[in-house]
Amino acid sequence: MTRALSIVAVVGWLAGSGAVRADDVEEAKAHFRRGVELYRAQRFGDAAEEFEAAYRAKPHGSIHYNVAQCRERLGQWPAAYRAYSDYLHELPDAKDRAAVRASMGKIEERLAKTGEQLLVVYSDPPGARVTVDGVLRGTTPLHLSLAPAAYALALALDGHEPASERVELTSSASRVVDLTLRRAPQPVAAALAPDPGAGHDLSARPQPAEAERVPVAPAPAAPKRMWPVWVAAGTAAAALAAGALFGASAKADAQAISSMGAPDGARASQLAQSAQSKARTANILYGVAGGAAVAAGALYVIEVKF
Questions:
Q1: CA angle (106 as vertex; 105, 107 as ends), nearest 5
Q2: DSSP string, 84-145
């Protein structure tokens, strides 16, 4: 039912909107790496907490998948279903959407045996108050374990029009509801309020200083620390070039043996040993180049995509 822990959370780990503090990025990295270590040690509860802490520091929907994997291993089916649902809600174009939906379907089968299913509620914007059959149950996003039945769902958020929907839970399937809340219209009294400046000479009103109209530039995003990537990439390039030189020299020694006009055992032996030594050195350098290239790719993922 569960797959190997997803490392997709590292790739494309975005910050949402606005500049991200470097401290938040480092905190998120630390929590995520600790979560991976704990998962591999089969400490799934602690791993889930670390992944959730990483999400709070620097949110990205991919982290929900890792949380879901941990909750599944613990047999926490409602929490696992909610985490998978959060993953698909934040990443609707996820390539593994079909596989995740299959995992959610198996969780629904387990929930059916308990006589309950899940109602998962999202709203745009989030933070709306959720009432079910007139009883306040929390704020969005929210998940509730309920018996199969029809329920009156209502959402309310200050400054927005309320929304309601009748939701029916069956014994075999959970339900995900995602409602968009429209902003409430401006009160008529405020819209019709007279302009205090009407009937007066507007030129006499104080004008803001020129400096007050200059927009403030947004804070720059934290710079990416690319030097480890360039060091690894440079090492790969240098090792590759050196390997090519040794390989060419070994080939030249081999050709010198083939082109000898008269037999010369000592000279041929010397050239053969030189060719073998240079070939081994070239192979070692090619291996170093390959390892450094892989390291550069991994560092790029961590330092750039985080």
A1: 90
A2: HHHHHHH-TT-TTHHHHHHHHHHHHHHHHHHT-EEEEEEEESS--EEEETTEEEEESSEEEE
Integer Cα distance of 253 and 190 in angstroms: 92
The label of the residue with tokens 């990439």 reads 233
pTM of the predicted model, to two decimals?
0.58
pLDDT digit string, tens, across residues 56-100: 999 999 999 999 999 999 999 999 999 999 999 999 999 999 999
Domain ranges for the chain, please list them.
1-112, 115-186, 227-305
Q: For residues 169, 175, 178 and 181, what is the CA-based torsion angle, rounded to 10 degrees? A: 20
For all residues of the chain together, what is the average pLDDT? Answer: 80
Gap between the Cα atoms of 218 and 18, Å rounded:
8
| Beta pairing, strands 175-180 & 135-139 | unpaired
Give the β-pairing of 175-180 and 117-124.
parallel
Domain 1-112 identical in fold to domain 115-186: no
- Expressed in angstroms, the distance from the first to the final Cα of the chain is 29
CATH superfamily of 115-186: Carboxypeptidase-like, regulatory domain (2.60.40.1120)
What is the CATH code of the structural domain delimited by 1-112?
Answer: 1.25.40.10
